[in-house]
Amino acid sequence: MSLRRHKSWIGLAFSGLWILGGLYFAFLWFFCRVYVPEGHSLQLRYKGPLVLTAPEAEPNRLAGDGEVGVRAKMMGPGRHFYNPIYWQRNVVPDTVILPGEIGVVTCKVGESLPKGEFLVDGDLDGDNQATQRGILRKVFGPGRYRANPYAYEFKIVKREVKRYGNQEKNSGWVEIPTGYVGVVTLQTNNEQAGLQKGVQSKVLQPGLYPVNPNEQQIDIINVGYNESSIEVQKQVDAQGNPMHDEHGEPLATQDTGINFPSNDGFDIQLDFSAIWGVMPENAAQIVRVFGNLDAVEQKVIEPQSESICRNNGSKMGAIELLIGETREQFQTDVSEDFQSVLSEKEISMLYGLVRHIYIPKNVREPIQKGYVSDELKLTRDEETKTARIEADLREAERKVDLEAERVQVDTERLRAGVLAEGEKKAKEIAAETGRLIAQIDRETAELDAQRSVLLGRASAEAKQMAAEATADKFRLAVQAFGSPSAFNKWEFAEQLPTSLDLKMFYAGEGTLWTDLESVQPTLPLKSAPK
């Protein structure tokens, strides 16, 4: 009974554990579970224990471990399990910054900034996390950011343009196009970068820049050369066409363009064009002194163009402004003075051109008539020079023809001389060749004669030597056989045919020749050797 009772208690204990486990799981799943969707984060605030008390975080600060308040860490998308009794759970959307926008962040927790400062160095998290309340100096470009809304407040900024008089200050998402630079104006000191408040000398090159509106403002300045002109208004007819006098000069409207009295009291008007510009290294000084290029044109280019032209033109008479050399000197003086003034203000000048000078008709006509008569005289002189030169040319052409004929005759003479000399040389060479051939033929005949003599002598000597050798051979043979008769017998035997068949017949006493008639039938008949 005791064993059975013991087993039943164990079964009840296991059943109770299973029930408690199931209840705890149901509590977690249905009561503590929080689902954070994509693009959102979970902000947690610790409420503290139910019975005991816990210290609260200091005002304007995030709560640490064991402190009541909002925690710094944000949980990402997914399932999370936090007891709602102890935790306040808030699902907040992430901050999304689109292309062409920037995020300006205000830190709402941390220590207070010193008086007069409003920018904070630091980041949203990590080792460089901001520790003071204020606007972060750093701006955030396009992207998705998981930032605690209790600690950080995002302000989405596109391009901001603020006008101060005739100046445009850009911030936010700033685009500097090609051919322009950005002049930076700091609104507060940046001790970390070692920069002081005000217009900065270093400019921004063309590109895209995220600019904190609370820290910087950008002036976009066109670099390169511009053209500014002051022109005289021309009189027009009813149809709007420019009017001209009988000499083709345009009629000018009074008190337009640059006008001044000459030193002889005539009213002069002129057109002036300045090709000027700002280089990148001088853009900051232009903004610092003038504000923008429009102010440069209004305050420097136009006033100085008029002032310099008037000052130099009033020193000269009307005739001097019309005549070429003195007019060119006037242009040179104006250009040099204009260059000097603009250089002092760090403005580059390419050209300062006096384009047209309008001189009164009563001054212009006598001068023009005088110039016309001078030009006619010069024309006549030139025509006379031309006729003289043409006559010289004709004479030169005749000399050329004569010289050509003389050269041709000389050429024929030289050619005939060369041909005669060549024929003479050819005949001399032919005669010399004949003589050499005859000499060679004579030497050849002499050699043939010597050859015949030598060959005859050699033939005779050869026959003599052959005869002497034959005689010597017979002498030696006779000596070898002992007597001439023995040699003759040997010689006779040598001459006999090899097929001779000898037979011995005894005929008794007497001679062979007497008994040949009886022997002759037995001897074979052979032809005599040839």
Explain the overall architecture.
The protein has 530 residues and is of the alpha+beta class. Among the domains are: 225-235 and 243-359, Tetrahydropterin Synthase, Chain A; 378-449. Helices cover 42% and strands 24% of the residues. It has 8 helices and 21 strands. It has helices at 2-32, 283-289, 293-313, 318-322, 324-344, 361-481, 484-495, 516-519, and strands spanning 33-36, 40-46, 69-70, 78-81, 87-93, 95-97, 102-107, 119-120, 134-140, 143-145, 152-157, 159-164, 167-176, 180-186, 198-204, 207-211, 216-222, 224-230, 258-261, 267-278, 348-358. The strands form 7 sheets. A 4-stranded mixed β-sheet has the order 8-9-7-11, with no helix packed on it. Strands 18, 19, 20 and 21 form a 4-stranded antiparallel β-sheet that branches. A 3-stranded antiparallel β-sheet has the order 3-2-5, with no helix packed on it. The radius of gyration is 69 Å and the shape is flat. The chain starts with a helix and ends in an 11-residue tail after the last helix. The relative contact order is 0.05. Residues 525-530 have low confidence and may be disordered. The chain crosses the membrane at residues 12-31. Keywords: Coiled coil, Membrane, Transmembrane, Transmembrane helix. This is Band 7 protein.
Provide a brief overview of the structure.
Residues 175-391 form the Band domain. By secondary structure, this protein is of the alpha+beta class. Helices cover 42% and strands 24% of the residues.
